[in-house]
Design brief:
Helix content is 32%, strand content 21%. With 236 residues, the chain is α/β, with parallel strands linked by helices. The strands form two sheets. A six-stranded parallel sheet has the order 4-3-1-2-9-10, with helices on both faces.
Length: 236
Amino acid sequence: MKIGILDSGIGGLTVLSSLLKKCPEHEYIYYGDTLHLPYGEKTREEVVGYANEIIKFFESMDVDIVVIACGTLSSNREYLKSNKEIIDIISPIKGKLDKYNKISIIATPLSIKTNAFKKYLNSELNLIACPKLVPIIESNDYSNLDNALEEYLSSTKDSDALILGCTHYPIIKENIKKYFKKDIICLDDFIVDIIKKKKTCDGTLKLYFSKIDSNLEKNVKRILGRKDILIERKCL
């Protein structure tokens, strides 16, 4: 099965990495829209426009499934158009986290603004917009990370779990653990469960980004744990 995975940048690589480890038999095409990141501080119309162009690219590549490996886009799933099956990273949590009384969610400002998580969770929610995190992660400069995490996670102490509502955030999961000591939930686990049930084929991997620099290349190889990765610049 051919699967297209899209994100604003390198965050969706955390989803791709999980899929490569647990469902390696599929064919994957990744597109990171690094030219337009961060999505979380743009308007819905802007990010939906970018995403629908990427989806058209995937359709031209004849993918079977489009995985929206981006919390911001997943929170605006109803505005994305495709004649292919679309799987987002938020809706699969429905009914899976009811054991928690109170859940904190860190995500981009646009994701928080949509209240999308409230559709799928029955727990009391503490929603936290984190505009500083994606730029820090994409730049590979973590000098201000602790200050940002201390600011954003200060209100999470009485929560039973923390959802990383942006696929960039698992990259800094170990840093987040210093400030939140209970269950930390990454959304890629729920995607893996869905893809595992899909028909298989011979596995291959293609990576596309709309803008490429040295930091991006380093981040891609670090997140995927492979040095033999080839990435291609493609503007849509």
